[in-house]
Amino acid sequence: MEMDNKLWKEDEVQEIKERIIASLEQVIDPELGIDIVNLGLVYNIHLYESGFCQIDLTLTTMGCPLVDVITDDIIKALKTIPEVTSSEVKLVWYPAWDTTKMSRYARIALGIR
Question: Is 97 left (phi over 0), alpha (psi -120 to 50) or beta?
Fold first, then answer.
C-alpha cells in the first residue's frame, strides 16, 4: 500500500497509514464476518496532499450483492481519520482475489488451510 503525497514527512505518512488500516479493519464483510483488511480485499491506499484518499478494493466475487454496504462502511470509517478530507472506493479486479491474500487470522477464522 502506498501513499501519494509530499505534504507529510515519511514517519507521519506511516502513522496515518496505520490509522487508516486500523479504521478499515472495522469494516466487516457481512457475508464472511471478517474485516476487509484481513480478507485481503484492500489492494492499495492512496492519500493525496489535498487529503483525498482513494481505497483500491476488490471483492471475493464480481457479483457481490453487498458492494454498496461495504463501500459505505469504508467511507464512514475513513471519516474518523482527520487527515482524510474526502474519499472514494475504486473497485479493482486485477489481480484476482483468492484465499492466499487472506491473513492467517482470516484463514483460521474461516477454517481454510
Answer: beta
Contact yes or no for 58/43 (Cβ under 8 A): yes
**In this structure, what is the dihedral angle of CA atoms 105, 43, 71, 111, given to the nearest 10 degrees?**
-20
> What is the full DSSP assignment across the chain?
-----SSS-HHHHHHHHHHHHHHHTT-EETTTTEETTTTT-EEEEEE-TTSEEEEEE--SSTT-TTHHHHHHHHHHHHTT-TT--EEEEEE--SSPP-GGGS-HHHHHHHT--
pTM of the model: 0.88
Q: What would the grid cell of residue 38 be?
A: 484481513
What is the distance between the alpha carbons of residues 12 and 100, in angstroms, rounded to a whole number? 30
Q: What is the pLDDT of residues 13-47, one digit of tens each?
A: 889 999 999 999 999 999 999 999 999 999 999 99
State the Cα–Cα distance between residues 58 and 99, nearest whole angstrom. 13
